[in-house]
Amino acid sequence: MRFAAEVPDMELADYQRAVRLLLRHPLITATWPDEKALPRVRRFSAELRKDLSEAFGYRLELHGGTARLVRTADRLETDRPAITRTGRPFDRQRYAYLSLCLATLGRAGIQVTLTELAESVSADANRITGLGLDPDVGADRRAFVDAVAWLEERGVLRLADGSSTAWASDPGAGEALYDIARDAVFALFLPPRVLQHIDSVTALLDRSVQSSGNAERRAAAQAARRAVLERPVVYYDDVPAEIGNHLRGQALPADMYRLTGLRLERRAEGVLLVDTAGWSADRFPGTGSVAQAAVLLAVAIADRVSDPDGRKARRMPVPDPAEAQAKLIGQVDAGLPAGVPILTDPAPDGPTQHGTEADERRLPLVTDSVLREATADILRRYGSAFGATWHTDPDRLRTEAVSLLARFGAVREVPGGALALPLIGRYRSTIAQVKQRTLF
Predict the structure, then answer these.
(1) H or E element: which one contains 225?
(2) Are residues 105 and 56 in the same domain?
(3) Is 211 exposed, middle or buried (0-12, 13-18, 19+ CB in 10 A)?
(4) What Pfam families does this protein's entry cite (predicted)?
(5) Distances from the Cα of 11 to the Cαs of 43, 44, 64, 273, in angstroms?
(6) In this structure, is residue 436 part of a structural domain?
(7) Quick check: is 261 in a domain?
(8) Among 278, 370, 372, 374, fewest CB within 10 Å belongs to which?
(9) Terminus-to-terminus CA distance in the chain, angstroms?
């Protein structure tokens, strides 16, 4: 046993629960995600610190009433946004306010009022072209309150007196006093590099240069384990050959089960970690109209591309994932302050087409017109399961359902449609049942 070697068998399930807890909630405070989380992590802190470092290259920091798992990133991801209390993803304005709140709290004492925090963030935001913050403007105030609520929910800010609800409606009508959890403030912002010294977001990715064969193999094994954790499904064609070798190896399933208690499912095209414990924040199929439409659309796509009697789907070359990464990196780097140089070649040393040439790897294309027809058919067949909003805007339902399938590795969106990835075959000939809406 390479991992959890010092954990008795009778405590292994509790240890695995602590690992899954940290992987789902990299920041844990006295109250977030609940009061039992921090004691569970502290109970196995020594073993967790050692195993998470050795297995994934992650660093576990424990300070006061805060635990922080500092993760290593291999590529930029766009599918894990911060979420407001109403379930909406953060936009650029809310992310900016959140960052400015952390900067203000880092300079503050042990308490701060909501008005003082707003005034300080406003002063910084108004010096940034295109941002600004005017508490008297409803949109600005709501965005600021969402950022504060995100911190409050995680125990970084603790309400000591008053209420933020009245202030959110009218800054002059109420006030709130917060205690600042300073250990949580500093744990939240732990970049691997001093930000003033980087010239591209790629400097925050794992680009370490190994000096020996053993070190390179160890780094590739860590990258393989990280890929299994970070992605819903890992296709061999989307990772470098050395990482693919570890994904195909016999040690990976045993290591992942020993650490997380979850089974690794392996197929000819790739691997996935089966979430039988509910450790992931997102699961598919899920609940809600979009998730229901997505699984029904997955069935339609699978039947379309595998129907021997139907019209054969045209196959298209798979876009190089490195190009999408380079585009995303360029978009992030465009936000650097004026005067900071940007790398001329922003593409990281990351995944590209491996194992086969890019022009040889082709996948079935499901066109937008086919997806529209399938969405219309879903609305006809399961009309009462979807609200009037979706019936009046089927294109939005189709777009959001396809995006959800793309996020879980079932399709890859391309201009004019979507490419069916191997995972879509799981839903071939599936008989789906949709929960009907309750009208009374």
Answers:
(1) helix 213-230
(2) no
(3) exposed
(4) DUF2398
(5) 11, 10, 25, 22
(6) no
(7) no
(8) 278
(9) 56
